[in-house]
Amino acid sequence: MDGMVETAYRTLLGLAFLLLFTKVLGKKQLGELTYFNYATSIAFGNIVGEMIIHYKDVSISNGIVAVVIWVLLILGIEFRGWETDEREVEGIRTK
Q1: Which residue has the higher pLDDT, 57 or 81?
Q2: 76 pLDDT band (50/70/90 cuts)?
Q3: Distance CA 44, CA 63 (A)
Q4: Which of 85, 67, 86, 64 is nearest to 75 (CA)?
Q5: Where are the alpha helices (DSSP H) in 1-95?
Q6: Cystine design at 36: which of 9, 15, 55, 83 (Cβ 3.0–4.6 Å)?
Q7: CA 42 to chain centre
């Protein structure tokens, strides 16, 4: 029973982090997502999923640190403009 309570707690905490950092990173329409946004979203969900499922191997504090570092890296990359929009690469600027 203790494992179920731990999993429930981690699930609620993970959902809270996903909602919070989705707001921080900015919500976008599906059509506005670049490959970079799509890939980082999948990786972000994977980090939170690892924190939830592997509660014996990954402590909550380590999971939180990983999520915060990931979000800061993504914000830094977006701020510096290192992500490329596939429309820019093709030479057709549509924004």
Answers
A1: 57
A2: confident
A3: 11
A4: 67
A5: 2-25, 35-53, 60-80, 86-89
A6: 83
A7: 7
Identity of the amino acid at 43: A
The length of the chain is 95
Residue type, 39: A
Tell me phi and psi for residue 34, to 5 degrees.
-90, 170
pLDDT at residue 91 in the model: 53
The pLDDT tens digits of the residues spanning 62-74 come to 888 888 898 888 8
What is the residue whose two structure tokens read 């014996």?
56
In angstroms, how far is the first alpha carbon of the chain from the final one?
Answer: 52
| Higher local confidence (pLDDT), 59 or 28 | 59
Residue whose token pair is 């990173």: 25
For the beta carbon of residue 74, count every other beta carbon within 10 angstroms: 20
* Helix ranges, 26-59 (H): 35-53
